[in-house]
Amino acid sequence: MSKTVEFFFDLGSPASYLAYTQLPGICRESGATLVYRPMLLGAVFQATGNASPAMIPAKGRYMLRDLARHAERYGVPMRFNPHFPLNTLGLMRLLVAVQLHQPERFEAALQALYQAIWVDGLNLGEPARVAEVLGQAGFDAEALLAQCAELAVKEALKASSEEAVARGVFGAPSTFVEGELYFGQDRLDFVREALRR
């Protein structure tokens, strides 16, 4: 029976972007199923008393260099977003709306948004820019943005974030294999090993 990899993430986390570039390949190698679990990192931070490493100047400077090293190692494009930190509430609701209403297009939405934020460096705090990115990816931006206001969408994101905290998540990305938590994009070797066992 194939294993499942649960990927708890927030679009505003650069480390989540890097993990996103690697996890599909890792799962393909082992025949595992990758399950995307959008969560609101701000809510997780609030519930756990954690904060972004960028809030500590020395750690923030190191993080920028370390992210660049990993992007180079993975062979993926990455530009640290000049509009960081991002308020991702609307964006994460948008992903949940796609998951609920167009699950077959979820990965296309995820790719478009990650590209816009962590490669193109766009300000997705601007609704017009979000609509533009969605339109270029073939989505009905107006309809999708309207779905973000649905109670079911809001509740699903809240529930996922609360579940993450209940399971020990304190930051992003957080990956689970058979109930075991692996935090950070620099721990993907442990995910790979867990899938081989």
UniProtKB/TrEMBL annotation:
**Mind telling me which SUPFAM superfamilies this protein's record contains?**
Thioredoxin-like
Q: What class of enzyme is it?
A: isomerase
The DSBA-like thioredoxin domain covers 4-195
Does the keyword field hold Transferase?
Answer: yes
- GO CC annotations? cytoplasm
As its record notes, the protein acts as a catalyst of: 2-hydroxychromene-2-carboxylate = (3E)-4-(2-hydroxyphenyl)-2-oxobut-3-enoate; RX + glutathione = an S-substituted glutathione + a halide anion + H(+)
MF-aspect GO terms: 2-hydroxychromene-2-carboxylate isomerase activity; glutathione peroxidase activity; glutathione transferase activity
**Which terms are listed as keywords in the entry?**
Isomerase, Transferase
EC number in record: 5.99.1.4
Q: Where do the catalytic residues lie? A: S13 (nucleophile)
Q: For this entry, list what GO says about its biological process.
A: glutathione metabolic process; naphthalene catabolic process
Family, according to the entry, reads as follows: Belongs to the GST superfamily. NadH family.
State the protein's name.
2-hydroxychromene-2-carboxylate isomerase
The organism's lineage? Bacteria, Pseudomonadati, Pseudomonadota, Gammaproteobacteria, Pseudomonadales
